[in-house]
Amino acid sequence: MVLNKANVELTLSTLPIPVPLSGQVLIRVMACGICRTDLHIIDGELASPKLPLIPGHEVIGTVVSTGDKTSGLHEGDVVGVPWLGYACGKCRYCSRGQENLCDRAIFTGYTMNGGFAEFMVAYSDFCIKLPAQFAFAQYAPFLCAGLIGYRSYRFIPVEFSKIGLYGFGAAAHIIAQLAVMQGKKIYAFSRKGDDAAGKFALSLGAAWAGGSDESPPEKLDAAIIFAPAGELIPKALSDCDRGGIVVCGGIHMSDIPSFPYSLLWEERQVRSVANLTRKDAEEFMAAAIEHTPHTSVELFPLEQANSAIRKFREGKIRGAAVLVMAPGE
């Protein structure tokens, strides 16, 4: 499925199977999740994508062949391909462990073709070798929703126990389960009037669920904002206790309205999360193996990508939407 320009539907196209370059592997795609970031790219909210572009960066697939200078992967290995497709390893960011901020980073499904396809290429060093229990379409959301949710969550001190999640979608429903299994109290905020989302959150162990216009029954230690709504930042600050942290987990957000300094005072913090690192993937997969969070997904064949995107955009997906490339996967 190809994006030829912003704000138009994807085009079902027949293209040559890509050839892996040095350091790359050819992957037969099993499944690819649809992420909120894909919508931001398709809707023109993220500037300068590669065009034409095959979107998709929550990929599970099998290695078919390798180019030269690849390491660690072999034909038949099941891998995940995340948003960070390549980092140079040499710039000042990479040298201090911040490859997510690399000067020459390449991003899957944005500046290189992604997984809304039957075949794709990826840099072997940035693929994630998956354990057998995750080699199924239902786990495709782990590759971004899970990873970004985890990176956002890890910025919250371990001693903080009361955590608000604003926007209860793909990322929130995964990280909520991990947090509950680790003894945290989760407070889930969804769109005003979205009772189904609240019930979904409670079914996954949330201590409380309500609309984004409501206040939790007690002050929060921290909050993670997954919804791309800037107005939620002052709301989350007002919900947080002294010393609280508000983590913004999205790549795009609407403008943040002005708010009184009193909301930030008493050492509250606001921080963003950009992309992910391979270390995040290692830590998240280890946690997922230990706790095995359930993923709520709705599966669509590849050719129905536009229908799936519309349904996702309209908030009619509970959990995550996943494109499946072959029947029965």
Task: Give a quick summary of the entry.
By secondary structure, this protein is an alpha/beta fold. The chain has helices at 36-42, 92-95, 145-154, 170-181, 195-203, 232-239, 261-264, 278-291, 305-313, and strands spanning 24-34, 59-66, 78-81, 84-86, 106-107, 119-123, 128-129, 162-166, 185-190, 208-211, 220-225, 240-248, 269-272, 297-301, 320-324.
Which helices and strands, and how do they pair?
Layout: E1 24-34, H1 36-42, E2 59-66, E3 78-81, E4 84-86, H2 92-95, E5 106-107, E6 119-123, E7 128-129, H3 145-154, E8 162-166, H4 170-181, E9 185-190, H5 195-203, E10 208-211, E11 220-225, H6 232-239, E12 240-248, H7 261-264, E13 269-272, H8 278-291, E14 297-301, H9 305-313, E15 320-324
Parallel strand pairs: 8-9, 8-11, 9-10, 11-12, 12-13, 14-15
Antiparallel strand pairs: 1-2, 1-6, 1-15, 2-3, 3-7, 4-5
Helix pairs in contact: 3-4
Q: Count every beta strand, where a strand is a DSSP E run of 2 or more residues.
A: 15
Domains, number: 2
**Could you describe the largest sheet, including whether it forms a barrel?**
7 strands, mixed
Q: What is the CATH superfamily of the largest domain?
A: Medium-chain alcohol dehydrogenases, catalytic domain
Mean pLDDT: 95
The ordered H/E elements are EHEEEHEEEHEHEHEEHEHEHEHE
Strand content: 15-25%
Poorly predicted runs are: none
**Envelope shape:** globular
CATH names the topology of the largest domain as Quinone Oxidoreductase, Chain A, domain 1
Helix content: 10-25%
